[in-house]
Each structure stands twice: as C-alpha cells, then as structure tokens.
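Quick one, probably user error.
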C-alpha cells in the first residue's frame, strides 16, 4: 500500500493506494488521476522494489522533483515532498512488508509492459542502461552496414 497526501496544486486529500505499482498523471488509466494541465498523461510511477519505494519519472516536459531536486528515478522515504508538474505531494510511506516476491502479481510492471526490455529494466536498471547505450552506439553502424 502506498500512501500520499496532496499538499498544493490540487484539492488537499490523503490517498491510500493498495497496489505495488502506482501510476500518476492526467489520464484516467492511472491509479492516481490529477486533473492539472502541467502533468503528462502518465507522469510518473511509484513501485515497490525490494521493500523500498522507487519513483520513476516518465514526463518529458514538466518533470518530477523529489525534495526540490529533479529526478529520473529516486527511492522515497516517508516525509519526502514530490513535485509533479505544479502539484505537490507528500509521500507518507506504505506497508513495509511488501517485498520483491510480488514480481508475479498483476499490479506489477511486467503485467503492463511486456517483453524482455521491460523485464531487464525492472530487474536491473544498470544492465538496462548498458544495453540501451550499446544500442545507441550500434544502431548507426548497423544502418550503414545493412543498407
């Protein structure tokens, strides 16, 4: 369970979400929908990873900040302030007994993002980064060799 409180930019409320992966954005497909034009349709996600809470930014324009610092990914702790576009949230924490054994659950990344790349990205971000960089380097070479 992930607990958040809206501090500023939207009607103040406390939110408890029972999922292990919570997406936040403007779209109705998100578990937490915030009607603010500064948010992307799927702005960010908070996921339970090895009993810790990981925030992953998906926004390309207005970004996500944790405690005033722009982030791509960041582990959260209770009391952290999350700025999503113009909406400020406070991360209250969640159930600490949610562990990595929930990998097979339907509320997991793998159930929403199929394929090898999503599995590698979710399980080992460093390996995903290396594979991504290798793809960037090799794609122009392959283009000129195979054309």
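Nope, works fine. Designed sequence:
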């Amino acid at each position: 369970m992930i607990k958040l409180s809206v501090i500023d930019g939207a009607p103040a409320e406390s939110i408890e979400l029972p999922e292990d992966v919570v997406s936040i954005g403007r779209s109705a497909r998100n578990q937490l929908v915030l009607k603010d034009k500064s948010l992307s349709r799927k702005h960010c996600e908070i996921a339970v990873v090895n009993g810790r809470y990981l925030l992953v930014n998906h926004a390309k324009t207005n970004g996500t900040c944790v405690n005033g610092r722009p982030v791509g990914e960041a582990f959260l702790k209770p009391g952290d302030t999350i700025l999503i576009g113009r909406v400020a949230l406070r991360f209250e924490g969640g159930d600490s007994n949610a562990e990595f054994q929930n990998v097979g659950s339907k509320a997991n990344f793998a159930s929403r993002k199929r394929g090898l790349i999503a599995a590698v990205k979710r399980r080992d971000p460093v390996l995903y980064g290396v594979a991504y960089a290798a793809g960037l380097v090799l794609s122009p070479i392959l283009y000129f060799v195979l054309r």
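The mean pLDDT is 77.
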